[in-house]
Hints:
By secondary structure, the protein is mainly alpha-helical. Helix content is 73%, strand content 5%. It contains twelve helices and two strands. Strand 1 and strand 2 form a beta hairpin.
Amino acid sequence: MRPEYQITAAVALDLVMGDPHWLPHPVKFIGRLGAWLERRVRSSMENEIAAGTVVGLLTISLVLCAAAFLIWVCGFLDPIIGDLASIAIIYFSIAIKDLAKHSKAVYDVLHQGDLELARSKTAMMVGRRTSELGEDELIRAAVESVAENTVDGIVAPLFYTMVFGPLGAIGYRAINTLDSMFGYKDSHYMKFGRFSARLDDLANFLPARIGALMVVPAAIIQGYRWKRAWKTLWRDRARHDSPNAGWPEAAFAGALGIRLGGRNVYGDNVITKPYLGDMLEDLKTEHIVKANKLMICTSLLFLATGVVLRITFTAAC
């Protein structure tokens, strides 16, 4: 089966099924592998930067070897089974429906006026402390998460699938999982997690920029503020402390006519992030729904563009 068909089938499967709780997810195994290697390597290496690098390289290598072996074995049994294995790997590497589901859950409970439950639902999406957030801040957190994860959870794995096939998808997912585990700026992970954080920044460099640019035509299709999305993207993209997250967040802020950024609390640390976008509208629960529509449209546009480019390139060669 052509890679374009595998990718399209995987996205369709994700849109229909999402990530069922009863189905074992590879990210959990990647996380357990990374944690197990961390315990072993930390105890045997004094240099934390070197230890973190070893853990990162070992985790990614083992994940890639396991995925390659699975595809080879399944393909050896039957080419169709091999295709199904490839589709499954890509499917597990993206998260369109689950991202929409988690943010919609925040919208639903806010609409019901249950602030405490909304804080709990939002905490499942973001790393910041949500226990004291008001409605506006919960909406902002949900929209920011949707914007950033449009790249991390969808565009980036699809991008690497287009380039490297299913191994590109699971390889990126391993990199992103390591960053979410070790990429903290606290005393425990400042040095150990440096390799994972830098590698994640590098892996997201192109997808973040391509994904942000895709937000503009998606905003046109959705009838949002596409001119403002373009303007805000180029004006505010570099204000974020992350080299990549500012791109999709600025584009989303402009398209929705809202302002993102501001005061966040991580553990006991208060971090004030620069503002992205202009407050043309007050934050409302409907902005979560709009962000979801923009995320889905951006994802499908990227998929369609990538498939067309792959077919064109293959035909030319």
